């Protein structure tokens, strides 16, 4: 049964949820994770710098329409990609956390039945990723925090805000359940 996008079965204990994913959702997690990590690794020269643009982040807004499978896939994809990035544990955990929170918040905000919910969700993703990643990159590269956050906010505005929002609109027109 689906309620508000959550997948669960009611067990003998009605207060407890048993999360179950079907093959389509598991496949979606794998596809999104693989595509995200392949894009980041394939574009490594622009993906792991203090001034970076992660084209793969254009996939973040897809969490608005695909929900939990996209959230899990984007988080796993970020972790896998950042293992190969060479910035270490901070980037692996910090990047995964940033995308997890950004994707989850966008899913929840994007599902609100208000005007411009998707736009607000994408703006929140830009702010979350820009702030979290900007902070830890400032530490890793020993650069001023405001410069680091500004760099990531600008690059996220391009990848998530412009490219990602366009991808979201295109995919939502062609999505079938």
The percent range for helix content is: 55-70%
Separate helix tally: 7
Widest sheet: strand ordering? 1-2
Mean residue pLDDT = 91
Topology, number of strands:
4
Shape: globular
Structure characterization notes:
The protein is mainly alpha-helical and 177 residues long. The protein contains seven helices and four strands. A two-stranded antiparallel sheet has the order 1-2. Strands 3-4 form a two-stranded antiparallel sheet. A hairpin with a 2-residue loop joins strand 1 and strand 2 (6-7). Helix 6 (117-141) packs antiparallel against helix 7. The longest helix is centred in the C-terminal third of the chain and has 30 residues, at 145-174. The chain is globular and about 45 Å long. The model is unreliable at 1-11 (pLDDT under 50).
Overview in brief:
With 177 residues, the chain is mainly alpha-helical.
Layout of SSEs?
Elements: E1 2-3, E2 6-7, E3 9-10, E4 17-18, H1 23-42, H2 44-47, H3 63-66, H4 68-83, H5 89-110, H6 117-141, H7 145-174
Antiparallel strand pairs: 1-2, 3-4
Helix pairs in contact: 1-4, 4-5, 5-6, 6-7
List keywords for this structure.
177 residues; mainly alpha; single chain; disordered N terminus; two-stranded antiparallel sheet
């Amino acid at each position: 049964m689906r309620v508000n996008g959550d997948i669960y079965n009611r067990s003998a204990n009605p207060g407890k949820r048993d999360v179950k994913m079907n093959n389509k959702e598991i496949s979606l997690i794998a596809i999104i994770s693989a595509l995200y990590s392949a894009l980041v690794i394939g574009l490594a020269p622009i993906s792991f710098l203090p001034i970076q643009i992660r084209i793969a982040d254009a996939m973040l807004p897809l969490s608005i329409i695909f929900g939990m499978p996209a959230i899990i896939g984007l988080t796993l994809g970020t972790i896998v990609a950042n293992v190969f990035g060479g910035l270490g544990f901070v980037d692996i955990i910090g990047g995964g956390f940033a995308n997890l929170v950004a994707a989850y918040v966008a899913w929840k905000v994007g599902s609100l039945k208000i005007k411009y919910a998707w736009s607000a969700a994408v703006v929140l993703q830009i702010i979350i990723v820009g702030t979290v990643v900007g902070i830890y990159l400032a530490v890793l590269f020993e650069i001023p925090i405001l410069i680091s956050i500004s760099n990531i906010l600008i690059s996220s505005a391009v990848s998530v805000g412009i490219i990602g929002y366009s991808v979201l609109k295109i995919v939502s027109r062609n999505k079938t359940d």
